[in-house]
């Protein structure tokens, strides 16, 4: 088992659905979906703190096995504490090469509140 595997924690995707409310509007529901493991780290570098002052909220780096597809604005929950995150980068931008002995992808994420 590698160090990155040891850092991973169980998570679950949260899918958004909308249904008619019967009065001409809609109701938004959030439903837990597929389970996966992720290593989620908080970026507290000087650059990240400076960006946060300017309104940038992507303060987490999320590392997942390459087979896990995290899409831009996808939402997921860390099961250990119930914290919810929204992906703020494209899931296929940072991936390991096919010939690497470890297969991971990374995305940026921010804390998110379900509305």
Characteristic terms for this protein:
115 residues, mainly beta, 6-stranded antiparallel beta barrel, 2 helices, 46% strand, globular
Description:
With 115 residues, the protein is mainly beta. 11% of the residues lie in helices and 46% in strands. The chain is built from 2 helices and 7 strands, in the order αββαβββββ. The chain has helices at 3-7, 46-53; strands at 9-20, 26-42, 60-65, 75-78, 84-87, 94-95, 104-111. It has a 6-stranded antiparallel β-barrel with strand order 1-2-3-7-5-4. A hairpin with a 5-residue loop joins strand 1 (9-20) and strand 2 (26-42). It is globular and about 55 Å long. The mean pLDDT is 88.
Strand content: over 45%
Strand order across the biggest sheet? 1-2-3-7-5-4
The helix content, as a percent range, equals 10-25%
The helix/strand order is: HEEHEEEEE
Mean pLDDT: 88
Given the C-alpha coordinates, what overall shape results?
globular
The chain-level structural class is mainly beta
- Output the number of helix runs: 2
């Amino acid at each position: 088992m590698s160090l990155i595997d040891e850092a991973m924690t169980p998570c679950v995707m949260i899918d958004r659905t909308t249904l008619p409310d019967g009065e001409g509007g809609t109701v938004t529901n959030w439903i837990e979906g597929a389970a996966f493991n992720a290593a989620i780290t908080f970026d507290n570098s000087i650059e990240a703190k400076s960006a946060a002052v300017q309104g940038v909220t992507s303060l987490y780096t999320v590392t997942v096995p390459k087979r896990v597809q995290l899409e831009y604005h996808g939402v997921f929950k860390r099961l250990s504490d119930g914290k919810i995150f929204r992906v703020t980068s494209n899931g296929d931008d940072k991936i390991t090469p096919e010939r690497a002995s470890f297969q991971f992808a990374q995305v940026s994420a921010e804390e998110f509140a379900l509305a």
